[in-house]
TrEMBL record, chain A:
Belongs to the NrfD family. This is Polysulfide reductase NrfD. It is found in: Cell membrane. It comes from the Bacteria. It comes from Algoriphagus limi. The chain crosses the membrane at residues 35-60, 80-101, 113-133, 160-182, 221-240, 260-279, 300-322, 342-360, 367-392, 412-433. It is a multi-pass membrane protein.
TrEMBL record, chain B:
Keywords: Membrane, Transmembrane, Transmembrane helix. The keyword Hydrolase does not apply. InterPro entries: ActD. This is DUF3341 domain-containing protein. The chain crosses the membrane at residues 57-77, 97-120. The keyword Cell cycle does not apply. PANTHER family: LIPOPROTEIN-RELATED, QUINOL:CYTOCHROME C OXIDOREDUCTASE MEMBRANE PROTEIN.
Length: 454, 177
């Protein structure tokens, strides 16, 4: 027997029945794609093709195509890597952490958020792989494979190697978690379909029969996967931050990095979920499932994580001064007032000031304002990584080697390539996969729909 | 193995009605073959008298395997097979081995458990499931009663019990296999 407070907002509006849920979600998969979808898909595929030129050039000529120099060995590539990994944190957070906290509102956004996570991690993983220069022999540098270069194994003392394990585990576990959730929904589409579609979705549904015993095991698997994915999601950005924090570069060598990176990752991830969901709900007419209530709750997560990020920036600055280490103090003063001041202040404005606007109810319940601010947050988070990486490197211990970083067309092009890849994959997902987890929405329908309240 | 092919189905619309029906039908002595639902109904497994899933145990064992494999691999490679001085650290730098061990634990626990789930629930791309009613993946719950197992009770009697337990439809279903 479920007791739901009448004060709580309904999670699904519009008096939907179980059949309505099936119909509203499945019809996107079954119908012909709309003109808007085609245009969006072709745009994404066009950007992908354009970016591929830069990618091929980089692979053919080597990473000398990028604007890196002797002083600044990490710049756009690693900035983009950390940025995409950060975006890839919201999906698993929504599906795993919110499942453990029994936040039922996650049911209508977890599917798309997890898909976004998987695609973002694919984009992220590309950068370190390309940065190896010769990725075709890179497997020996990244994986503990026996080889004929002497019995030289990978270095398990290196956080870069920990990252290989963290990201590949995160990717594969998220993929499995996502797919397990998709199986019952594929079965729903299978049972509505005929012909070829029935065969394809039948195979995708793995012969799901909806038996109570299978559901019992499914629930057990979901709970344990959530329990495993929760520390996993926190470990991933912690280990990404170790790439910097375990070094001796002023501006990187700080113990605050792990929690600060994790908060930043959730912050940017939720912003990207909002960007995508606001478009998806509009295009697919899913306003009754992804309601204003959902958008408001995600905005609240953005205020909280944005404030943590803001406090982290200020703490970093304070500790640099308090440490009394001149190099450390200079690194931070240089960030705010040096040649990259514009990047630092873009970061401060976008990440610290703009999310505070969500304290105003009118702003956090406005679709337009949320959409704009979600873009602002993602721009700010890109600048955060750029500031951390480039400004800490460009003026190192030896003034004679101080330098500036200028991106080349290949830098920009490879970044564009990942955008094209991300959106191409997302649009394909949105068309051919059920974008809302029908089974889970149905399981909360009785206790949390508008109909149930009446 | 020859599978039974003749069933009586009770179709239910509401999860709470279904829950009571399961209890009623079981207490009247009818053995339920299985209940099929479009979404997980909490507590249904208790009403049906199923034992708790042992999948968490599988996950734990696979996780332990992951930890042991990861630690063995790292100590073997770094300490015994090809020791190298890296940053002046001990060859067996245990704290450095924790992140990879953690990740391998999670990886094996997750994949091992999901593998066991797939096998135990017969989930595979080429599986041909018995679909008792296509609406069970849409909006109906279906209780299937195997006639061969309940041969002691007449078919009419079973249908009566199902109808009085709140089933909105009572149907026959046979598979020709």
């Amino acid at each position: 027997m479920q007791v739901t407070s009448s004060v709580r907002q309904p999670l699904v509006t519009g008096g939907k029945t179980y059949h309505d849920v099936t119909h509203d979600v499945s019809r996107q998969v079954e119908g012909k794609p709309s003109l808007a979808w085609f245009l969006a898909f072709l745009t994404a595929a066009g950007v992908l093709a354009l970016g591929a030129i830069a990618l091929v050039a980089t692979l053919w000529e080597g990473i000398g195509m990028w604007g890196l120099n002797k002083t600044i060995g990490w710049a756009w590539d690693i900035t983009n890597f950390v940025w995409w990994v950060g975006i890839g944190h919201a999906g698993t957070l929504i599906s795993a952490v919110l499942l453990l906290f029994r936040q039922k509102w996650r049911t209508s956004i977890n599917r798309a958020a997890e898909a976004m996570t998987i695609f973002a991690v694919i984009c992220a993983a590309m950068f370190p792989v390309i940065h190896m220069g010769r990725p075709w022999i890179g497997a020996y540098w990244a994986l503990p494979l026996p080889n004929t270069f002497g019995s030289l194994w990978v270095n398990f003392n290196s956080p870069l190697l920990w990252d290989v394990f963290a990201i590949s585990t995160y990717f594969s576990v998220s993929l499995v978690f996502w797919y397990i959730g998709l199986i019952p929904d594929f079965a729903t589409i299978r049972d509505r379909a005929t012909g070829l579609r029935k065969t394809i979705y039948g195979a995708l549904s793995f012969g799901w029969d909806g038996a109570a015993k299978t559901w019992m095991r499914y629930e057990s698997v979901s709970l344990i996967l959530a329990g495993l994915a929760t520390p996993l999601v926190l470990s991933v950005h912690t280990i990404v931050s170790f790439d910097f924090a375990t070094s001796v570069i002023p501006g990187w060598h700080t113990t605050i990095f792990p929690p600060y990176f994790v908060a930043g990752a959730i912050f940017s991830g939720f912003a990207m979920v909002l960007t995508l969901m606001i478009i998806t709900r509009k295009v697919f007419k899913l306003e009754d499932y992804i309601t204003m209530g959902h958008i408001e709750l995600m905005n609240i997560v953005i205020i909280i994580t944005g404030s943590i990020v803001g406090i982290a920036y200020i703490t970093e600055f304070f500790i640099a001064w308090y440490s009394g280490v001149e190099a450390e103090q200079y690194a931070f003063i240089n960030r705010a007032t040096g040649p990259y001041w514009w990047a630092y202040w873009s970061m401060m404005t976008c990440n610290v000031i703009s999310p505070q606007l969500f304290w105003i109810k009118k702003i956090r319940t406005s679709i337009v304002a949320t959409f704009i601010l979600s873009l602002v947050v993602n721009i700010g988070m890109w600048f955060e990584r750029f500031v951390i990486i480039v400004t800490s490197l460009h003026r190192d211990f030896l003034p004679s080697s101080w330098a500036m970083f200028y991106p080349t067309w290949a830098d920009v092009g490879v970044y564009l390539f990942t955008f094209g890849l991300f959106f191409t994959l997302f649009f394909l997902f949105a068309k051919f996969f059920p974008v809302i987890n029908m089974a889970e929405v149905k399981s909360v329908l009785k206790s949390s729909s508008e109909k149930a309240a009446n | 193995m020859e599978r039974d092919t003749h069933f009586v189905l009770g179709v239910y619309e509401d999860e709470d009605v279904l829950m009571n029906a399961v209890k009623e039908v079981r207490s009247s002595g009818v053995k339920i073959h299985e209940v099929y639902s479009p979404y997980p109904v909490h507590g249904l497994e208790h009403a049906l008298g199923y034992k708790r899933s042992r999948l968490p145990i599988a996950a734990f064992l696979f996780g332990m395997l992951g930890t042991s494999l990861a630690l063995t691999m790292q100590f073997y490679m770094m300490k015994f097979d090809w020791p190298m001085i890296i940053g002046g650290k001990d060859f067996a730098a245990f704290p450095d081995f924790i992140p990879v061990s953690f990740e391998m634990t999670v990886l094996l626990a997750a994949f091992g458990m999901v593998g066991v789930f797939m096998v135990s629930s017969n989930l595979k791309p080429w599986a041909q499931p018995r679909i008792f009613d296509v609406r069970i993946t849409d909006d109906k719950h279906v209780m299937a009663i195997d006639l061969a197992v309940n041969s002691g009770m007449g078919e009419e009697k079973i249908k009566e019990i199902l109808a009085s337990s709140g089933a909105t439809e009572v149907n026959n279903k046979s598979f020709d296999e």
